[in-house]
Amino acid sequence: MRPLLLSLVALLLTGLQAALLHQAGGGAFTLFLPVALLVHLAITADLVDGAVAAAAIGYVLDVSSGGTKGLLTSLAVAAFLGIRVIRIGVEVQGWAGFAALCGLSAFGLSAGAVALTRLAAPLEVRPSWELLPRIALGALLTMLVAPLLRLGLRRLDGIFGERPSELRP
């Protein structure tokens, strides 16, 4: 049940992201708000529920991006698993750790999508590595917004019946 509800939250965050980008810059910069869900899942969810929810969030990202189907789904699951590995060795309970993981994940998803698209696409339609500064700016902006999203996700956990003290480290 929780993966389905989190995919709906990802859909809402994607809509909010589209509205913000339209009003604020008209595409001058990017945000990756659903990445905060991936980071939150990697910190709080069980492995199977989290992986299923990460795939659902990745599917929402695939549909909203209009790119190759399955690309962001697989990258979202890989990011979820990567964050779980990072979580083993690094304390990420605070706002700064959460924001840093959100920025790292946003950069990894975007740069990974460019890299994999470059491998598979014909030469004339390959994305350029000149997108890296734009990707880095999007990751930085996502990192700055992440603490606000964390607050909302903690409240959402309260709705699901999990108290913050019960969340897994």
Please give a quick description of this structure:
With 169 residues, the chain is mainly alpha-helical. It is 74% helix and 0% strand.
Write up this protein.
The protein is an all-alpha fold and 169 residues long. It has a single domain (2-166), classed as Orthogonal Bundle (Arp2/3 complex 21 kDa subunit ARPC3). The protein is built from six helices and no strands. The chain has helices at 2-24, 35-44, 47-65, 71-89, 95-120, 132-159. Helix 2 (35-44) crosses helix 5 (95-120), helix 3 packs across helix 4 (71-89) and helix 4 runs antiparallel to helix 5 (95-120). It is globular, with a radius of gyration of 15 Å. The model is unreliable at 164-169 (pLDDT under 50).
What is the element layout, followed by pairings?
Elements: H1 2-24, H2 35-44, H3 47-65, H4 71-89, H5 95-120, H6 132-159
Helix pairs in contact: 1-3, 2-3, 2-4, 2-5, 2-6, 3-4, 4-5, 5-6
